[in-house]
Amino acid sequence: MESAKIDAKVERVSADIAKLRAEIGKRIVGQSSMVDGMLMGLIVGGHVLLEGVPGLAKTLAVKTFAEVLDAEFKRIQFTPDLLPADLVGTMIYRQQTGEFVPRKGPLFANIILADEINRAPAKVQSALLEAMEEKHVTLGDKTYYLPKPFFVMATQNPIETEGTYQLPEAQLDRFLLKLNLSYPGADEELAILRRMGNEKSIFVQKVLSPGLLNLLREAAMSIRVDEEIEKYIVSIVTATRQTGNAKLPFARYIEFGASTRATLGLYRCAKVKALFEGRGFVIPEDVKAVVANVLRHRLVLSYEAESEQLSADDVIHQVLKAVPVP
What residues does 94 pair with on adjacent strands? Predict the structure, then answer.
């Protein structure tokens, strides 16, 4: 009986998910992994770090998300001279009344694009990441809560290192997902040319209301996860912490494994993946589909991995091969 209720709830929102994808697809050609990853972060309530070369529609995708959600959107261009107050705001003195009043910064919006986050120094990155985690900021002696939903998508450019500040590993853990973008294929490039070449504005409808977002979150939370799948998720994450185990071939490539936050993120994202597939229960393939996005920024690779030119995705693939599938 309970299973039938869950399946009915999933079926009820499946049409909404398809409509949402179609609406975003009016502007964004291909890049389905980016669109699904952003939608997954929005449903789970986490934030997304996007890495890709310039010109792959990262900004356009976030703007489109804000428009279909009917939410307030702010873009913050990170630069080396940026200050924390430029993000969260500050207290200003009002001469007429002789008192200090808050002036809220651009973080007080629903969807934030932190463009090229690695161009700002550590104190600015920390101000953003603290707000992401706590969902509030302090100005003067008062605490101000950020609006709901509050969703941050930060981008960084992998081809530039001069004038950039690498995000600390501990702070990277605040992001639910890290999505790696690649160039579109030839067919997708041709479709982009034909659709966007004349620089015509493409209208999108506001199909994702706050009420629908809550329905999507409720449907995702109701997805069933078998006990064996739960153990599988835990086994994957704990396997990354076996850095001193000589019996595991991948152990020498990991200096520090994933945190408990990764376990929770993998569990929640696997549920959303099942929801995207129209299922009321999670299968191992759902976990495998999201594991790289959840773990790639949480693993600190060893010198041996760097010397053998192994990426985090390569190591995660070895972890999946070593952990038995239920």
Answer: 99
* Cβ burial, residue 243 (10 Å; 0-12/13-18/19+): middle
What are the structure tokens assigned to 314, written together?
């390569």
Residue 206 neighbours by CB distance under 10 Å: 12
Angle at 305 between CA 304 and CA 306, to 5 degrees: 90
How far is the C-alpha of 326 from the C-alpha of 21, rounded, in Å? 31
Q: Is the pLDDT of residue 55 over 80?
A: no
Q: How far apart are CA 308 and CA 243, in angstroms?
A: 17
Full set of structural domains in the chain with CATH:
29-211 (3.40.50.300), 223-322 (1.10.8.80)
Evaluate whether 69 touches 211 at the Cβ level (below 8 Å): no
How confident is the model at residue 227, as a pLDDT?
92
Structure tokens at 21: 């994808």
Instruction: Please give the distance of CA 117 from its chain centroid, rounded to a whole number.
Output: 14
Q: At what angle do helices 284-295 and 260-276 cross, to 10 degrees?
A: 130
CB 140 within 8 A of CB 91: yes
pTM attached to this predicted model: 0.86
- As a whole number, mean pLDDT of residues 259-279 equals 91
Which of 57, 27, 68, 55 is CA-nearest to residue 196?
A: 27
CA distances from 8 to 87, 269, 280 (A): 43, 20, 9
Q: And the tokens for 290?
A: 């999201």
